[in-house]
Write a structure and sequence with these properties.
Chain A is of the alpha/beta class. Chain A is built from 11 helices and 10 strands. In chain A, strand 4 and strand 5 form a beta hairpin. The N terminus of chain A is likely disordered. Helices cover 84% and strands 0% of the residues of chain B. In chain B, helix 1 runs antiparallel to helix 2 and helix 3 packs antiparallel against helix 7. The chains are: A alpha/beta (273), B mainly alpha (224).
């Protein structure tokens, strides 16, 4: 065995073990959240989400992981009686700044839901919908966005010859990737994913997970998942929530191999509840 | 569709092959140092054992990480478990080579006048058996690995012959007693290396076929 091969292998391993140098992009500070004005569901949350990494939120149902996710793009604003304390910042700016327009915040954030929800339109029109709403109708630009977004969602090769067909003709996995393509069409900086694979079969799930791995080169991704193996496979950092509290937040490898908190250990090893 | 993390298995396999090559080289160098009374080469074998030890640690870490994060099944999980077990055998082979080198350093003054018996033949067989096990993995040919335990039998026989031979030398030349005792231990190290090669071969049969042939008639018959 040549020495050069050995050196190459060792150097690559060392590089992969380098700690992340990406700055914290989303910061959650002393965050409390209430429904109906007084029913507290999130308690004193503090966590920093790094840029261009995948961060997974895990925990049993009702632990608050989706509530926190939906606070990041202020989707909870649509619910009557909610209130919060503390702050969430993106790139140093509060998302609750009274001068901030929610629309401009949501332009920076793409959202993918548990159930794929394509519009009753063609594949093409699903992608360009938000651009048309913004008054951007130049065909060359729309064509470019469609191809870029579908390529980004690893769907282009499968649908490039039927862009004008209904999105409802796609398989479940393709629909979910179409929704991801739609979410990245406006070039957001952040992708929030709420159980994006829970309705998909294993092969479609594998494709979406591969996609998440690719997309993190460009986007900061936060994913909520009940599937702990999925969190282990796709995320760089994992946050474990229980009863609205952040129990442990660390490198995914640490959370799943040597968690520091007995509650985390019990949850990830299936001894919980 | 290839999952994005499958390259980590390729890395693990590469580290295993690298460790095997280092172990084979250590045994080869240790025996050449003994044969040629080459103190420098013996010292080098001792120093390079750290590389083999580190590869075992790396493989353990990579395998544990993959088991935890990737939930492997079928041949993937067999590769992980086999890598965990055989890396320990390879580490022990490195230790035995280092031990032979240590004894070579002690023998430096006397080595040229000693009768090495079947030690060189044992080393050739042991190295060939490790190589056969590794090549069977590379070629995907489990039959080749299945034959390794039978070939180990010859190493065991040569070790017993060496023992009798060296005891005779000690009786005839009491002034060389300590030197021939070192050779008894060298011979024993080679016999252990042969055992590790047989272990590795059996694990590779499991990796390639899913059949666990340890302690089975397949192995017992091959020893007849």
């Amino acid at each position: 065995m040549s020495h050069s091969f050995q050196t190459k292998v060792q150097a690559r391993s060392a590089a992969e073990k380098e700690p992340s140098t990406q700055p914290d992009f989303i910061q959650v500070r002393d965050f409390n959240f209430y429904y109906d004005g007084h029913k507290q569901v999130l308690f004193d949350l503090n966590l920093d989400i790094p840029k261009q990494k995948v961060t997974a939120f895990i925990g049993p149902s009702g632990c608050g992981k989706s509530t926190l996710l939906r606070n990041i793009n202020r989707m909870n604003d649509l619910i009557d009686g909610i209130r919060h304390e503390g702050d969430i910042t993106i790139d140093g700016h509060s998302i609750f700044d009274p001068l901030l327009e929610v629309i401009s915040l949501r332009k920076r954030i793409g959202m993918v839901f548990q159930k794929s929800n394509p519009f009753p339109k063609s594949i093409y029109e699903n992608i360009v919908y938000s651009l048309r709403v913004a008054g951007r109708n130049r065909k060359a630009e729309l064509d470019e966005v469609v191809e870029r977004s579908l390529r980004g969602a690893a769907l282009w090769e499968e649908v490039k010859d039927r862009l004008q067909e209904s999105a409802f003709g796609l398989s479940g996995g393709q629909m979910q990737r179409l929704c991801i393509a739609r979410a990245i069409a406006n070039r957001p900086e952040i992708l929030l994913m709420d159980e994006p694979c829970s309705a998909l079969d294993p092969i479609a799930t594998g494709k979406v997970e591969n996609l998440i791995h690719e997309l993190k080169k460009e986007f900061t991704i936060v994913i909520v998942t009940h599937n702990m193996q999925q969190a282990a496979r796709v995320s760089d950092r994992t946050a474990f929530f229980y009863l609205g509290k952040l129990i442990e937040y660390d490198e995914t490898e640490k959370i799943f191999m040597n968690p520091g908190n007995p509650q985390t250990e019990a949850y990830v090893s299936g001894r919980f509840g | 569709m290839n999952r994005f993390y499958l390259k980590e298995l390729d890395e693990l396999r590469n580290h295993f092959l690298l460790m095997a090559e280092n172990s084979i080289q250590a045994v080869t160098d240790a025996i050449e140092a003994l044969r040629d009374c080459d103190v420098g080469k013996a010292q080098s074998v001792r120093e390079k054992d750290d590389i083999i030890d580190q590869l075992e640690v790396d493989i353990d870490a990579e395998a544990s990480r993959y088991l935890t994060l990737r939930a492997p099944v079928a041949s993937d999980v067999r590769l992980i478990t086999v890598a965990l077990k055989t890396s320990h055998d390879l580490e022990r082979i490195g230790d035995e080579a280092s031990s032979i080198a240590k004894r070579t350093l002690r023998l430096a003054e006397n080595a040229s006048v000693l009768d090495l018996g079947s030690i060189l033949r044992m080393a050739d067989l042991a190295v060939a058996n490790i190589r056969e096990a590794i090549d069977s993995l590379l070629d995907g040919d489990a039959e080749r690995a299945t034959g390794v335990p039978r070939k180990d039998k010859e190493i065991d026989i040569l070790n017993r012959e060496n023992y009798e031979r060296f005891l005779g030398k000690i009786t005839a030349n009491p002034e060389l007693a300590s030197a021939y005792m070192e050779l008894v231990f060298v011979s024993k190290s080679l016999e252990r290396i042969g055992d590790h090669a047989a272990n590795i071969a059996q694990e590779i049969v499991f990796l390639l076929t899913g059949r666990d042939i340890r302690h089975t008639e397949v192995v017992k018959r091959s020893l007849l």
